[in-house]
Amino acid sequence: MKRRVRWVWKFFGFLVSLFLIYELWFAGRILTLRWIEPASSSFMSAYAEETNKVPKYIWVEYKDISLQVKKAVIASEDAKFLSHSGFDWTALRYAASQNLKQGRTVSGGSTITQQLAKNLFLSPSRSIWRKGQEAILTVMLEVVLSKKRIFEIYLNVIEWGRGVYGIEAAADHYFNQKADDLSEYQAVKLASYIPAPRKHYLIGDTEPSLRKARIIRGRMNHSIIPNE
Questions:
Q1: Is the distance from CB of 106 to CB of 98 less than 8 angstroms?
Q2: Going by C-beta distance under 8 Å and a sequence separation of 6 or more, which residues neighbour residue 57?
Q3: In the CATH scheme, what is the code of domain 37-222?
Q4: Residue extents of the structural domains in the chain
Q5: 104 phi and psi angles, rounded to 5 deg
Q6: 26-54: pLDDT as tens digits
Q7: What is the pLDDT of residues 6-15, one digit of tens each?
Q8: How far is Cα 180 from Cα 68, in angstroms, rounded to an integer?
Q9: Are 57 and 44 a contacting pair, CB within 8 Å?
Protein backbone atom coordinates (compact mmCIF):
# COMPACT_ATOMS: atom_id res chain seq x y z
CA MET A 1 0.00 0.00 0.00
CA LYS A 2 2.77 2.45 0.93
CA ARG A 3 4.58 1.57 -2.27
CA ARG A 4 1.48 2.34 -4.33
CA VAL A 5 1.01 5.69 -2.59
CA ARG A 6 4.68 6.50 -3.21
CA TRP A 7 4.26 5.79 -6.93
CA VAL A 8 1.12 7.91 -7.08
CA TRP A 9 3.02 10.82 -5.57
CA LYS A 10 5.91 10.30 -7.96
CA PHE A 11 3.54 10.27 -10.92
CA PHE A 12 1.82 13.39 -9.62
CA GLY A 13 5.21 15.08 -9.21
CA PHE A 14 6.11 14.09 -12.77
CA LEU A 15 2.93 15.68 -14.11
CA VAL A 16 3.55 18.86 -12.13
CA SER A 17 7.11 19.00 -13.48
CA LEU A 18 5.85 18.64 -17.05
CA PHE A 19 3.30 21.39 -16.45
CA LEU A 20 5.96 23.74 -15.05
CA ILE A 21 8.32 23.05 -17.96
CA TYR A 22 5.46 23.74 -20.38
CA GLU A 23 4.65 27.06 -18.71
CA LEU A 24 8.32 28.05 -18.51
CA TRP A 25 8.56 27.47 -22.25
CA PHE A 26 5.75 30.00 -22.73
CA ALA A 27 7.39 32.39 -20.26
CA GLY A 28 10.62 32.25 -22.25
CA ARG A 29 8.80 33.03 -25.49
CA ILE A 30 7.04 35.97 -23.88
CA LEU A 31 10.32 37.30 -22.47
CA THR A 32 11.80 37.46 -25.98
CA LEU A 33 8.88 39.65 -27.05
CA ARG A 34 10.36 42.52 -25.05
CA TRP A 35 12.92 42.95 -27.84
CA ILE A 36 11.83 40.83 -30.83
CA GLU A 37 8.59 41.01 -32.78
CA PRO A 38 6.82 37.67 -33.30
CA ALA A 39 7.53 36.06 -36.65
CA SER A 40 4.07 34.52 -36.65
CA SER A 41 1.17 33.64 -34.34
CA SER A 42 -0.91 30.58 -33.54
CA PHE A 43 -3.81 31.97 -35.57
CA MET A 44 -1.54 32.67 -38.56
CA SER A 45 -0.21 29.12 -38.42
CA ALA A 46 -3.76 27.73 -38.25
CA TYR A 47 -4.73 29.80 -41.30
CA ALA A 48 -1.67 28.60 -43.25
CA GLU A 49 -2.44 24.95 -42.44
CA GLU A 50 -6.11 25.37 -43.29
CA THR A 51 -5.61 27.11 -46.64
CA ASN A 52 -2.04 26.23 -47.61
CA LYS A 53 -1.51 29.96 -48.18
CA VAL A 54 0.93 32.41 -46.64
CA PRO A 55 -0.91 34.95 -44.45
CA LYS A 56 -0.41 38.64 -45.13
CA TYR A 57 1.53 39.92 -42.11
CA ILE A 58 3.46 43.19 -42.04
CA TRP A 59 5.02 44.42 -38.80
CA VAL A 60 4.96 48.18 -38.15
CA GLU A 61 6.42 50.14 -35.24
CA TYR A 62 4.07 51.61 -32.64
CA LYS A 63 5.01 55.16 -33.59
CA ASP A 64 4.03 54.45 -37.20
CA ILE A 65 0.44 53.52 -36.35
CA SER A 66 -2.21 56.22 -36.62
CA LEU A 67 -3.28 57.76 -33.31
CA GLN A 68 -6.86 57.38 -34.52
CA VAL A 69 -6.38 53.61 -34.81
CA LYS A 70 -5.05 53.36 -31.27
CA LYS A 71 -7.95 55.37 -29.86
CA ALA A 72 -10.55 53.47 -31.88
CA VAL A 73 -9.25 50.04 -30.85
CA ILE A 74 -9.10 50.99 -27.17
CA ALA A 75 -12.63 52.41 -27.40
CA SER A 76 -13.86 49.26 -29.12
CA GLU A 77 -12.06 46.49 -27.28
CA ASP A 78 -10.81 47.53 -23.86
CA ALA A 79 -11.51 50.98 -22.42
CA LYS A 80 -9.86 50.05 -19.11
CA PHE A 81 -6.69 48.66 -20.74
CA LEU A 82 -4.28 50.93 -18.86
CA SER A 83 -5.94 50.47 -15.47
CA HIS A 84 -6.49 46.72 -15.22
CA SER A 85 -3.95 43.93 -14.70
CA GLY A 86 -5.07 41.76 -17.58
CA PHE A 87 -8.69 41.06 -16.62
CA ASP A 88 -11.72 43.34 -16.60
CA TRP A 89 -13.87 41.57 -14.02
CA THR A 90 -16.84 43.88 -14.53
CA ALA A 91 -16.87 43.15 -18.27
CA LEU A 92 -16.48 39.41 -17.64
CA ARG A 93 -19.43 39.35 -15.22
CA TYR A 94 -21.56 41.31 -17.68
CA ALA A 95 -20.61 38.96 -20.54
CA ALA A 96 -21.43 35.91 -18.42
CA SER A 97 -24.86 37.28 -17.50
CA GLN A 98 -25.65 38.17 -21.14
CA ASN A 99 -24.55 34.77 -22.41
CA LEU A 100 -26.59 33.03 -19.72
CA LYS A 101 -29.63 35.14 -20.55
CA GLN A 102 -29.36 34.44 -24.29
CA GLY A 103 -28.37 30.79 -23.90
CA ARG A 104 -25.41 31.28 -26.26
CA THR A 105 -22.22 33.30 -26.56
CA VAL A 106 -23.19 36.86 -27.48
CA SER A 107 -20.56 38.74 -25.50
CA GLY A 108 -16.90 38.01 -24.77
CA GLY A 109 -15.60 40.41 -22.17
CA SER A 110 -11.97 39.60 -22.99
CA THR A 111 -9.35 42.30 -22.57
CA ILE A 112 -6.73 43.22 -25.16
CA THR A 113 -4.16 41.20 -23.18
CA GLN A 114 -6.40 38.12 -23.13
CA GLN A 115 -7.04 38.44 -26.86
CA LEU A 116 -3.30 38.72 -27.50
CA ALA A 117 -2.60 35.60 -25.41
CA LYS A 118 -5.15 33.65 -27.45
CA ASN A 119 -4.05 34.94 -30.86
CA LEU A 120 -0.33 34.52 -30.26
CA PHE A 121 -0.20 31.15 -28.55
CA LEU A 122 -3.50 29.26 -28.59
CA SER A 123 -6.08 27.86 -31.00
CA PRO A 124 -9.42 29.43 -31.95
CA SER A 125 -11.24 26.47 -30.35
CA ARG A 126 -13.23 26.91 -27.13
CA SER A 127 -12.52 24.72 -24.12
CA ILE A 128 -12.02 25.00 -20.37
CA TRP A 129 -8.34 24.06 -20.80
CA ARG A 130 -7.82 26.80 -23.39
CA LYS A 131 -9.46 29.43 -21.20
CA GLY A 132 -7.32 28.34 -18.27
CA GLN A 133 -4.13 28.53 -20.32
CA GLU A 134 -5.24 31.89 -21.70
CA ALA A 135 -5.53 33.19 -18.13
CA ILE A 136 -2.01 32.01 -17.26
CA LEU A 137 -0.57 33.59 -20.41
CA THR A 138 -2.44 36.82 -19.72
CA VAL A 139 -0.77 37.10 -16.32
CA MET A 140 2.64 36.38 -17.88
CA LEU A 141 2.16 39.04 -20.56
CA GLU A 142 1.14 41.65 -17.99
CA VAL A 143 4.10 40.83 -15.72
CA VAL A 144 6.79 40.66 -18.40
CA LEU A 145 5.73 43.30 -20.95
CA SER A 146 4.75 46.96 -20.70
CA LYS A 147 1.24 48.05 -21.67
CA LYS A 148 2.68 49.83 -24.67
CA ARG A 149 4.46 46.68 -25.89
CA ILE A 150 1.35 44.53 -25.35
CA PHE A 151 -0.72 46.99 -27.37
CA GLU A 152 1.92 47.27 -30.10
CA ILE A 153 2.05 43.51 -30.56
CA TYR A 154 -1.74 43.23 -30.41
CA LEU A 155 -2.22 45.78 -33.20
CA ASN A 156 0.35 43.93 -35.29
CA VAL A 157 -0.85 40.33 -34.96
CA ILE A 158 -4.62 40.24 -34.61
CA GLU A 159 -6.69 39.14 -37.58
CA TRP A 160 -8.37 41.91 -39.58
CA GLY A 161 -9.70 39.70 -42.37
CA ARG A 162 -9.18 36.24 -43.82
CA GLY A 163 -5.41 35.92 -44.18
CA VAL A 164 -4.85 39.57 -43.15
CA TYR A 165 -2.91 40.04 -39.91
CA GLY A 166 -1.81 43.29 -38.33
CA ILE A 167 -2.89 46.88 -38.84
CA GLU A 168 -0.40 47.59 -41.67
CA ALA A 169 -1.73 44.70 -43.74
CA ALA A 170 -5.31 45.75 -42.91
CA ALA A 171 -4.70 49.36 -43.95
CA ASP A 172 -3.27 48.15 -47.25
CA HIS A 173 -6.01 45.58 -47.87
CA TYR A 174 -9.04 47.75 -47.11
CA PHE A 175 -7.80 51.25 -48.02
CA ASN A 176 -4.53 50.84 -49.96
CA GLN A 177 -2.81 53.01 -47.34
CA LYS A 178 -0.20 52.86 -44.61
CA ALA A 179 -1.25 52.37 -40.99
CA ASP A 180 0.10 55.82 -40.15
CA ASP A 181 -2.18 57.50 -42.72
CA LEU A 182 -5.52 56.08 -41.60
CA SER A 183 -8.17 58.67 -40.84
CA GLU A 184 -10.61 58.60 -37.92
CA TYR A 185 -13.35 57.25 -40.20
CA GLN A 186 -11.11 54.45 -41.49
CA ALA A 187 -9.79 53.63 -38.02
CA VAL A 188 -13.32 53.35 -36.63
CA LYS A 189 -14.37 51.04 -39.47
CA LEU A 190 -11.41 48.74 -38.89
CA ALA A 191 -11.99 48.68 -35.12
CA SER A 192 -15.61 47.70 -35.72
CA TYR A 193 -14.41 44.67 -37.73
CA ILE A 194 -12.31 43.15 -34.91
CA PRO A 195 -15.02 40.89 -33.40
CA ALA A 196 -15.75 39.21 -36.76
CA PRO A 197 -12.94 40.07 -39.20
CA ARG A 198 -13.55 37.28 -41.72
CA LYS A 199 -17.18 38.30 -42.19
CA HIS A 200 -16.26 41.87 -43.13
CA TYR A 201 -13.42 40.68 -45.35
CA LEU A 202 -16.03 38.98 -47.54
CA ILE A 203 -19.13 41.18 -47.37
CA GLY A 204 -17.93 44.58 -46.10
CA ASP A 205 -19.98 46.67 -43.70
CA THR A 206 -23.01 45.22 -41.97
CA GLU A 207 -25.69 46.95 -39.92
CA PRO A 208 -24.18 45.64 -36.63
CA SER A 209 -20.69 46.84 -37.62
CA LEU A 210 -22.03 50.27 -38.63
CA ARG A 211 -23.88 50.51 -35.32
CA LYS A 212 -20.72 49.49 -33.48
CA ALA A 213 -18.74 52.08 -35.46
CA ARG A 214 -21.06 54.82 -34.23
CA ILE A 215 -20.56 53.67 -30.64
CA ILE A 216 -16.78 53.57 -31.09
CA ARG A 217 -16.68 57.08 -32.50
CA GLY A 218 -18.65 58.34 -29.52
CA ARG A 219 -16.19 56.75 -27.08
CA MET A 220 -12.94 57.75 -28.77
CA ASN A 221 -12.57 61.09 -27.00
CA HIS A 222 -12.33 59.18 -23.71
CA SER A 223 -9.77 56.64 -24.95
CA ILE A 224 -6.54 56.58 -22.95
CA ILE A 225 -3.71 54.93 -24.87
CA PRO A 226 -0.18 53.90 -23.89
CA ASN A 227 2.38 56.67 -24.41
CA GLU A 228 4.30 56.88 -27.67
A1: yes
A2: 40, 44, 157, 165, 166, 169
A3: 1.10.3810.10
A4: 1-32, 37-222
A5: -160, 170
A6: 999 999 999 999 999 999 999 999 999 99
A7: 777 777 787 8
A8: 9
A9: yes
